[in-house]
Every structure is written in structure tokens, then in C-alpha cells.
Known about the structure:
By secondary structure, the protein is an alpha/beta fold. The protein folds into 2 domains: 3-46 and 203-270 and 360-410, FAD/NAD(P)-binding domain (3-Layer(bba) Sandwich), CATH 3.50.50.60; 58-101 and 134-199 and 271-356, D-Amino Acid Oxidase, subunit A, domain 2 (D-Amino Acid Oxidase, Chain A, domain 2).
Amino acid sequence: MTDQSKGHVAVIGAGIVGICSAAYLQREGFRVTLVDAEEPGTMTSFGNAGAISGHSVTPMALPGIWKRVPGWLFDPLGPLAVRIGYAPKAAPWLMKFMAAAKDYEAQAAALAALYRPVREAYLTLTGDAGADHLLKQTGSVSVYETEAGFSGDAIVRELARRHGHRVEELTGDELRQLEPALGPQFVRAGYYPDGTHCRNPGELCRLLADMVLAAGGAHLRANVVGFETGADGVRALRTADGQSHAFGHYVIAAGAWSHRLSAELGEPFPLESERGYHMVLPHPGFETSRPISFGERKFMCTTMEMGLRLAGTVEFAGLEAAPNWERANKLLRHAGEIFRSVDISEAKPWMGNRPATPDSLPVVGRSKKHRNVAYGFGHGHLGLTGGAITGRHIASLIAGRAPDIDLSPFAIDRYAR
Length: 417
Ligand SMILES: Cc1cc2nc3c(=O)[nH]c(=O)nc-3n(C[C@H](O)[C@H](O)[C@H](O)COP(=O)(O)OP(=O)(O)OC[C@H]3O[C@@H](n4cnc5c(N)ncnc54)[C@H](O)[C@@H]3O)c2cc1C
């Protein structure tokens, strides 16, 4: 390794996690290269619902989850579906997912510690990137059409409160004062006044990536397929076109594809794609003021620069299967039922791969096998929320500082012990 490459970091994956890692690494004085065959921020980080919600501390798997699994197999348009042909492949992950439910309190505590400063972690970067205008702090609401749905999610509000977040419980009328476009069937809501959201996640990525490149960062347009390793750690990455590139440090931030790279490094991790869909309505006829999460229907909507984005649903079908656009169309049917009136013409569909871990905790930390590798992936439903704070931790670790929170719950080897 040359002296020059020692302070040079390869960040593999230019989604929100990789871009923020690169930006924070530059602040630590490192030279960075984003390695990605795609344009920065054009994969999963492009199409999310925009919520930056540090109060979302409840893991996906809660006690009793196993009772719901059979339904996931038999309703391809349900809020959570497993494609029948993919079920054998997803089974080991789903078993771990169900087993994780018993530890939900510890997972919530870990998520709360990691995600407490998410807004500040973005504001450190967005000023210089010219992206402050994309972030709004108008709170968020989870809305319910039944009292049973509202009380069924009491645990979500309770865990948020217990970890220091403000939560208000609203009646249907109070909710409609906040969001007048909603129909009359909503009876209750949980309101999180401190939530932030992004009005254009793709543009946020673009502006942050432009800032990184303007500050001397590079973009190597290539797919990483492997590594050259030695006693002193990783010596080079290998790209699909047969080239090798040497760097001093390597960050694995390749979203739902990250486990392929961690396996190449001898650190396999159970990661699944929870495929999600969105529909953007360019002229719905109204604006909502904050992200709205629909408790029973399990999707969200957020007014963005390009229109109203309806986003959500979970589908297990792997990284290669073609999208099932019927799932996106279902979002349009929901829209027709939940708003007083809505124009769904010219709706634009999209699908993305959430990088999901069984215990809802991302992988954030150093490799256990290679001294010059760090991991930042697996943020599942909260990757926009966690992008900037993860980048801050990664940069701090590579700079040689001890983390300011306990990162052991996020270790790469937690399923290997
Ligand atoms: C419908 C939907 C709604 C969502 N809503 C929210 C929300 O409201 N709030 C929230 O916090 N989160 C939300 N999320 C989750 C969030 O979008 C993701 O967790 C986040 O975008 C993941 O970011 P990432 O950088 O890890 O991955 P990505 O954005 O997918 O980036 C990974 C990058 O790695 C690259 N890559 C992969 N393999 C390689 C390789 N071998 N070599 C080089 N590059 C490689 C890819 O090309 C890609 O550019 C939502 C997700 C979906 C699908």
C-alpha cells in the first residue's frame, strides 16, 4: 500500500448511508471514493417515504408475530407478503425474525440510542450541501380507522415515550384539524410532534453526493465482486470488469446487497430484501403537512416536491424477481378510500429493496476479521432516518475514536456467535 492510499477510503455503495459516510469521512480528513455502478442515491434511497423519525424505536418483530406468518403466504397483495416460490429461501431469515421478537425491549433501547440524534446528524451536512430546504420538522402521525387498531399499537407509543420522545394521542377530530384531507373514518391517532421529514429523498442524496465530489471525492462507477486480503487486512477491492483498486480503508454500505460483500470477507450475515413500493401522485389536489402512517393498512404518505408519495408494503421475493406492480396499484386503491377526494391520474410507480435484518437493528461497526473494514447496512424501514448518524459513527470509527454509544448490538458477528 502506498502512503497515499492509506488515508483513502473506498465507500462501497452510494445510497444515503454510503454518501453520508463519505461526507463525514471527509470531515475527518480522509480522501474518499464512492464505488457504485449506479448514480448516487438512485436505488432504495431514492424512493422512500421521507420520514426521519428517531422516535421509531419499535422493532418489526414483536411477540405474537408468528401467528401472522401463514397469512403472509396466502395473500399476495397483503401488507406483508412472501412470494410462494421464494418462501423456502426466506424461511431461515423468517425463523430468525420470529425468534428475535422476544428481545424487542433490548432492540428498542439500542435503536433509541442510535437514532436519538438523527436530525442533528443531517443538519451537520445539509447546510453545506444546500439541502436544508428539503428537511421539515412538522412531526408525523400514525392514524387508525378502528379503536382496536389504535390500542393494538399502544406498545409503539409506549416504547417511544419510554425512550424520551414526545407522543400525543389524538381524537379523529383533532387529527383532521392537523390533516384536513383525511376522510371521516379515522377515529384515533398517535402524533409525534418532533418528527422530521424530507421532501425529496433522491434530491437529498444528489445534493449530498455533489458536495462530496466538489470537496475532492471521486465516484468509481463499478460493481465490487470481491477483495484481496492479507495479514494486514483488505489490500484491494476487485470490480466486475476485472480491475483491482487499493485503498487504506473499506466501508461496506451496499444496502440490501451488502451481505454478498460481507460473505466475500468471511463475515456472512442474514440480510433479506423487504421489497417496498411507492406511487407518486403528481397532482392529488391537496397537500398533507407531515408523514401519515396508516395503522391498519400499513403504508405511509408524504407530500413531497414531486407530489403525494404513497409508500410502503413489504414483499419477500429476493433481489432478482420482477416487481409485482399490482402491489403498487393497491396503494392507489387505498388512496381512493382514505382521502376526502384525491386525483390519482398520472401516478408513477417504483419499487425498492429495504435491507432488512431479522432483529431490526442495522449493522454498524468494525469488521471482526479485517482491521481496515467497517460496515454500515441493514437499516430496513429506517435507512433514511439512520443514514447520517450511521455515517458519523463510521467516520469516527475509521478515525480511530471509540464510539460515543454502545455499538455492540449492531455487530456484524451477532448471528455467528
Ligand atoms: C417503500 C419504502 C419506504 C421507505 N420509507 C422510509 C422512511 O420513510 N424513512 C426511512 O428512514 N426509511 C425508509 N425506507 C428505508 C430506506 O429507504 C432504506 O433503508 C435506505 O434507503 C437504505 O439505504 P442504503 O444506502 O443502505 O441502500 P441503497 O440506497 O439501496 O444504496 C445501496 C447502494 O449500493 C450499491 N451496491 C450494491 N451492491 C454493490 C456492489 N457490489 N458494488 C458497488 N455498489 C453496490 C447499489 O447500487 C446502491 O446504490 C423506505 C424504503 C422503502 C422501500
